[in-house]
Amino acid sequence: MAGATQRAKVRRFRDGTGIGGRASLAVEEPLEIRVDGAVVATTMRTPGHDFDLALGFAITDGGVSPDRVGGMSYCGVDAGEVVATPTAADLAGPYSGDFNVVNVATRDGGGVTVARNRQTVVTSACGVCGSDVVADLRERAGSVAEDPLTVDADVIASIPPAARAAQPGFEATGGMHAAAAFAADGTLLALREDVGRHNAVDKVVGWAATTGRLPMAGTILFTSGRVAFEIVAKAAVAGIPMIVAVSAPTTLAVELAQEVGLTLVGFARDGDFTAYAATHRIRD
Prior knowledge:
Blueprint: E1 5-14, E2 17-26, E3 29-35, E4 38-45, H1 50-60, E5 69-75, E6 82-84, E7 101-106, E8 121-122, H2 131-140, E9 151-152, H3 153-164, H4 168-173, E10 177-182, E11 188-194, H5 197-210, E12 220-223, H6 229-237, E13 242-245, H7 251-260, E14 263-269, E15 272-277, E16 282-283
Parallel strand pairs: 3-7, 4-8, 9-16, 12-13, 13-14
Antiparallel strand pairs: 1-2, 3-4, 5-6, 5-7, 10-11, 10-12, 14-15
Helix pairs in contact: 1-5, 2-6, 5-6, 6-7
GO molecular function: sulfur carrier activity; sulfurtransferase activity
Protein name: Sulfur carrier protein FdhD
Main location: cytoplasm
């Protein structure tokens, strides 16, 4: 499996003149996610933190509670056999062999609690929302209205530049999204990068699950892209009471944030931002 970035030959043009050179590209490869051996999704992702991604997806999209998870492993594509249980050093990559299939094993062997057809590839450009998915995620997105989190406006303004400084993949390629967990005082807790913004969020949720931080009460989720319905739903499932994004939310995202009492902040750039829902958590 490749690392997160890869060098490529390019020809750059300035003022009509071409010059040969090299550039870094964001790596995009398929990851097949299985729960108890059954395929639940194949998503196009940037390699790295694959266990976080698989676990986060199983929780936010498959309804698997963290206490049911017994372990995770990379598997061979054809035979399905476990070929590695990587150490922390191994997870930094690159790997030898095939590491594009991850199995999440539950203690009870019961698989996902939300059964959907996920045999098609989920692209890095979008999530997996159809009308049935929207209805299910809306039903499973728990209320965070009672979370007592309050955050100073200047802390919110500080989050995008703090996240930007911790994105080596974007720095190298200009082609990766980021999602991050921040504490109420603006402390960066974890950041994950991926070509897909939904994948980056799932990686953060998976990190929280493996470190015993679910539900993520009192936590701020940063995302570098626009905020669609599914991002808000994933945050609510994880118990996150606030999202800060550098881009705009959609109508369904704002509606769901209002329904579940989640503070939704968009256009957080250059010290300014716009709050769309549950604005009472923001202190002037």
